């Protein structure tokens, strides 16, 4: 039997007042079937509030910031922590029965929260490039497509910048891949420093990136990035939606502009 199964059996055997046990069973099924962190915390708080008559309010804090609150908070409270999550349970006079029931609820929450954390890590790994912290290709295309349709719907203009780092292979060959990795990480870090909330960087793969800027004149950030990174790069930009049928067509156009610049650089060196 699982740890959660053990707790349910123990609760069923120990809690003599059965009126609330069906609600407890529903809570278990509901909470164990939830792996999104915010939904998990909301369900946990509402369950505590609804099952225990003595509870008048619940507050959830993450890194000391309130992320969820329910009820009122002018009475005594019990603290309970889940990793970096702090849950404050405000209550009137609490009976031994409800205290035991709360103990079982929190024990199940603590066990299942490990699954919630694993899912969060898995989701983050799928969303962000492990090396640079930029959005992954898949997540980036989803975000870019969403922005494309959003701009079209709201009749606004954004900028898509296609960037290819110059000479990364040479850096890897001469100085090793660790140095090449440092350059990639530095480029993304610097790029993020010059974009605003709502803008983002996507790593398409290797040394190719796309930066989305929520402005018609977004390519103005390129010179700032160039001045603050060791990475040399070629780039091309387009405004979106600006007549493109979809985000793929816009990326292809920006890619062609970038490639043209790269060819001109090579020609000038000869």
Automatic annotation (TrEMBL):
<dbReference type="GO" id="GO:0052621">
    <property type="term" value="F:diguanylate cyclase activity"/>
</dbReference>
<dbReference type="InterPro" id="IPR043128">
    <property type="entry name" value="Rev_trsase/Diguanyl_cyclase"/>
</dbReference>
<dbReference type="GO" id="GO:0043709">
    <property type="term" value="P:cell adhesion involved in single-species biofilm formation"/>
</dbReference>
<protein>
    <submittedName>
        <fullName>Diguanylate cyclase</fullName>
    </submittedName>
</protein>
<dbReference type="InterPro" id="IPR029787">
    <property type="entry name" value="Nucleotide_cyclase"/>
</dbReference>
<dbReference type="GO" id="GO:0005886">
    <property type="term" value="C:plasma membrane"/>
</dbReference>
<dbReference type="Pfam" id="PF00990">
    <property type="entry name" value="GGDEF"/>
</dbReference>
<feature type="domain" description="GGDEF">
    <location>
        <begin position="156"/>
        <end position="270"/>
    </location>
</feature>
<dbReference type="InterPro" id="IPR050469">
    <property type="entry name" value="Diguanylate_Cyclase"/>
</dbReference>
<dbReference type="InterPro" id="IPR000160">
    <property type="entry name" value="GGDEF_dom"/>
</dbReference>
<dbReference type="GO" id="GO:1902201">
    <property type="term" value="P:negative regulation of bacterial-type flagellum-dependent cell motility"/>
</dbReference>
């Amino acid at each position: 039997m699982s740890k959660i199964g053990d707790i349910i059996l123990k609760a069923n055997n120990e809690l003599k007042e059965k009126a609330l046990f069906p609600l407890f069973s529903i809570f278990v099924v509901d909470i164990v079937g939830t792996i999104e962190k915010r939904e998990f915390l909301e369900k946990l708080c509402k369950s505590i509030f609804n099952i225990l008559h003595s509870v008048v309010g619940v507050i959830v804090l993450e890194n000391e910031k309130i992320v969820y609150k329910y009820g009122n908070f002018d009475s005594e409270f019990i603290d309970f922590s889940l990793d970096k999550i702090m849950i404050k349970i405000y209550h009137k006079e609490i009976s031994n029965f409800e205290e035991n029931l709360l103990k079982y609820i929190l024990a199940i929450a603590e066990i299942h929260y490990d699954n919630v954390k694993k899912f969060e890590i898995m989701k983050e790994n799928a969303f962000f490039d492990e090396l640079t912290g930029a959005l992954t290709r898949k997540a980036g295309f989803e975000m870019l497509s969403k922005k494309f349709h959003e701009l079209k719907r709201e009749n606004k203009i954004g900028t898509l910048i296609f960037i290819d780092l110059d000479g990364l292979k040479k850096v890897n060959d001469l100085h090793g891949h660790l140095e090449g990795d440092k350059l990639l990480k530095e480029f993304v870090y610097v790029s993020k420093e010059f974009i605003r909330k709502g803008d983002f960087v996507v790593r398409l793969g290797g040394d190719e990136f796309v930066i989305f800027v929520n402005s018609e004149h977004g390519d103005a950030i390129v010179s700032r990035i160039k001045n603050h990174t060791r990475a040399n790069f070629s780039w091309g930009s387009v405004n979106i939606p600006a007549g493109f049928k979809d985000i793929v067509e816009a990326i292809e156009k920006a890619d062609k502009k970038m490639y043209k610049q790269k060819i001109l650089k090579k020609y000038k060196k000869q």
